[in-house]
Task: structure prediction
Amino acid sequence: MKRKAIIHISENADTLNKIMSIFENRLDEIKLYPNHFLEIKTDEEASGYEEIMSLIVKEKWRHTFHEEREYSKQEMKAAKYFHIGVAYPWEHDPMKDAEYYGTTYEYLKSKSCNCNKVQVSKLQLDVKKLGKWKNMAHIRPEYIITEYTKLLIENNELSGCEIREAIDYKGRELHPVFQLVVTNIVPPMQEVVRIEPYSHMEAHCESCSSKGFLRSELIYRKEELEKFKDFNFTFEYWDAYHIRQPIVSAKVRELFTKHKVRVFRYEPVRFI
Ligand SMILES: [Zn+2]
Result:
């Protein structure tokens, strides 16, 4: 696997010039922009990478970090589980989640964390908006599948999920849709997973150990492999929308690929 880091540093001109002079030939790409902004794009194997990262921490430079990871064909073939990204056809309007379309939820305890939220009605959504993603899509925080995908899951006895009926929010008789409920929750992730803590909300919830934005691949212990099924959710709630991340088995990847159920990213889960 190749790791490429994209780092943005916002500091005063003197600091940025100093960084430029130290690292100019030791990182793949380093660019100074007006308005006190420096952009670094580099393979993490580059000679200056470890040093710039430790300087960022030591000097407390204001920065953002993003990592892109590339996997070889062999690595993809050898992987047993994959972290997936599922299309969100409502992308242009992030407020249009399942609740917006009338799905009802109740809170078990306080409203401070999504882990206390329980769905108490059938999933409701705008079925017309599914478009080309119709075989599998996401309406936060739920997953939608068509009858085609439902049969694929049932005929292959894929584990770790339940399938429930879903309905159009206007009650229109369109093609049938279903909710894919992932029931298998895997153990908490290993500490080595890179996390950028939330700044806009409490970073830690006692029940779900929610922490922030995921900045690396998902990592588990080898001993935990047996707890994984075909469909899984992370224990933690992640990212901007504070939701569990879906993980599927190699069997699901193979079937979905063969039968054209589109998922936009399969990233191998690492076991250490
Ligand atoms: Zn929580």
